């Protein structure tokens, strides 16, 4: 079993929809949670970063962490065609430089006109 | 501002050949790393460096070598390429919790 599980999709939604992307994990020691966005043939870029449980909002994006359920989510409001990309969740146990970052496999999102 | 630059973008090798993937960053980040990305496997850490002269192994280091003689450069060497090393390779530098990725090298080993 992988430490981090993520549905690969693809997930297709119409423009303007609310998108929910999710990851589950098995290691309760994870404390730092990130979402990266990766456009086709590009490197990933950091979208959201949260520490421990709770919500964090940035514009149309909200990251949610539920450590009791070992479940993290990324919500995208008013989705746009430019949001079409692969979304990778990532997490680590500590903030130390050598602390390994574990990635999910990514969910491919397609926002249609 | 160039960020993290990787060369080449595409490469085809024959089994047994060696090559070096280049990575350079202009942000003065101490931490640099190499990942490979394979379908269904996600990003996996190959090697990383926390500063010039210091390198360490990641999750999948076999068949790869690295060195870090300067803060800016972190090349990845494939010693004897194998078909299992067909992948997309990403170099990344890090500041705080944020990784800055290059645009990747697509490598095929025949």
What keywords describe this structure?
A: 113 residues; five-stranded antiparallel sheet; 0% helix; 53% strand; globular; B: 110 residues; mainly beta; four-stranded antiparallel sheet; 11 strands
CA radius of gyration of chain A is 14 Å
Question: Residue ranges of chain A: pLDDT <50 for 5 or more in a row?
Answer: none
Seen as an oligomer or otherwise, the chain set is: heterodimer
Structural class estimated from helices and strands of chain A: mainly beta
Label the structural class of chain B: mainly beta
Output the helix-strand order of chain B: EEEEEEEEEEE
Total E-strand runs of chain A: 11
Brief characterization of the structure:
The complex is a heterodimer of chains A (113) and B (110). Chain A is an all-beta fold and 113 residues long.
What does this structure look like?
The complex is a heterodimer of chains A (about 110) and B (about 110). In chain A, about 0% of the residues lie in helices and about 55% in strands. Chain A is mostly beta strands. In chain A, strands 2, 4, 5, 9, 10 and 11 form a six-stranded mixed beta sheet that branches. In chain A, strands 1-3-8-7-6 form a five-stranded antiparallel beta sheet, with no helix packed on it. Chain A starts with a strand and ends with a strand. The mean pLDDT of chain A is about 95. Chain B has about 110 residues and is mainly beta. Helix content of chain B is about 0%, strand content about 55%. In chain B, strands 2, 4, 5, 6, 9, 10 and 11 form a seven-stranded mixed beta sheet that branches. In chain B, strands 1-3-8-7 form a four-stranded antiparallel beta sheet, with no helix packed on it. In chain B, a hairpin with a 2-residue loop joins β5 (about 40-50) and β6 (about 55). The chains are: A mainly beta (about 110), B mainly beta (about 110). The interface of A and B includes residues 34, 45, 49 and 98 of A.
């Amino acid at each position: 079993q992988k430490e981090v599980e993520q549905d690969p999709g693809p997930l297709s939604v119409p423009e303007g929809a609310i998108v929910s992307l999710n990851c589950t994990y098995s290691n309760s020691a994870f404390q730092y949670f990130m979402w990266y966005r990766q456009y086709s043939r590009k490197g990933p870029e950091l979208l959201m970063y949260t520490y421990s449980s709770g919500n964090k909002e940035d514009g149309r994006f909200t990251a949610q962490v539920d450590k009791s359920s070992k479940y993290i989510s990324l919500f995208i409001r008013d989705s746009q065609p430019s949001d079409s990309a692969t979304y990778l969740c990532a997490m680590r146990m500590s903030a130390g430089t050598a602390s390994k970052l574990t990635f999910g496999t990514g969910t491919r999102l397609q926002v249609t006109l | 501002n160039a960020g993290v630059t990787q060369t080449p973008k595409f490469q085809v090798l024959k089994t047994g050949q060696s090559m070096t993937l280049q990575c350079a960053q202009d942000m003065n980040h101490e931490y640099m790393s190499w990942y490979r990305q394979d379908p269904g496997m996600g990003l996996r850490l190959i090697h990383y460096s926390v500063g010039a002269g210091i390198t360490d192994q990641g999750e999948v280091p076999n068949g790869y070598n690295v060195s870090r003689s300067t803060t800016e450069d972190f090349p990845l060497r494939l010693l004897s390429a194998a078909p299992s090393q067909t992948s997309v390779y990403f170099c990344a530098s890090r500041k705080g919790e944020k990784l800055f990725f290059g645009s990747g090298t697509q490598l095929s080993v025949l």
